[in-house]
Amino acid sequence: MFNNKRLLALAGLILFIALAVFAWPQLRGEKVVIATATQSELTQSVVASGKVRSPQRIELSSQISGKVMQIPVREGQQVTAGQLLIQLDDTEWRAASAQASATLTQSLARLAQMGELAVPLALQSQRQAEANRVQARQNFERSSTLVGKGFYSKTQLDDARRNLEVAESQWQAAQLQARSSQPGGSDFRLAQAAVEQARASLQVAQSKLGYTKIVAPVAGTLLTRAIELGDTAQPGKLLMTLSPAGDTELIVQIDEKNLRLLSLGQKALASADAYRDQRFAAEITFISPAIDPLRGSVEVRLRVADAPAYLRQEMTVSIDIETARRTNAVIAPIDVIHEIASPKPWALVVRDGVARRQEVSIGIRSDSRLEIISGIKAGDQLVPASQTSVIDGSRVHAVAR
Questions:
Q1: What CATH code would you report for 28-43+326-400?
Q2: Rounded to two decimals, what is the model's pTM?
């Protein structure tokens, strides 16, 4: 009898242990690796790849045809404004300039001669013609009187009339010549026009002579050279490309979905693909008002005030644009948020060993974390959205990551 009681007690104990073993997980809940909300600083950024480019490029070409005589610069060289880049053969244009200068000197001498010689001679001729005209008129009047008295014949009167007409004509011609030689007259204006024409010809010749020297319009870096000594430069043909000195720009295409995050003046950190461990600062200075319909992107330009020496034109760079920063934010991993793109995102928060659905408001985000504006506080335990077996009301056994 005693042994039977002991056997029954032992069987009951075994049954109790078995029930406890099978029931304990149900009472304790599913084992879940949870994440914990924290409070710290969070930075939101947009990351993209772009190219290095100066604010503008100057493409240099020749205004005239000519043989290249000198190229005293090389690609990659820093040049100053006005520095000689290419010297063309200037023999022909030096001769043309000298000839035009001589023609101008000659024209100026002729104009000066008008005032020093032509005008006085014309005035003298006018006075002489006037005297001859007066004398001829007096002779005609005297001949008319004598013919009336019978002392002169009609033939003598006709001779006196012809002499008067000749004197009148010469006097009129002398007047015209005098007016033409004086300032404002036709001869004087012709002499002036000759001077202006010679001066213009000299300017053209000097301009052509100047075109034989191709100089740097501004200080900068010579990027490319497309001509060699002995080649013939042709008008309009690209000879060199110059990058003006100044702030370097980064040109990047940003996905249009991030346009709302961008604004002028935002700071960025960039690094060249060839020097990934060296980062430098940049700042957004331009956001295109148009969207590229083919790529669905917007062009953004960033100014690099202190460009590293290793940067080169068209170099590929990675750009991290800081679009927002929170210094004391409640932060949760992105992977704990359900329906993150919906108007009402939510998370499962573990409270007293039970998962509870909690709607949240989301602020800025980084690649893997986001700001929780409301619904979750620092220290809350959160069930990852990948734990699909855990639903609202599930009892869970939380295990830290």
A1: 2.40.420.20
A2: 0.50
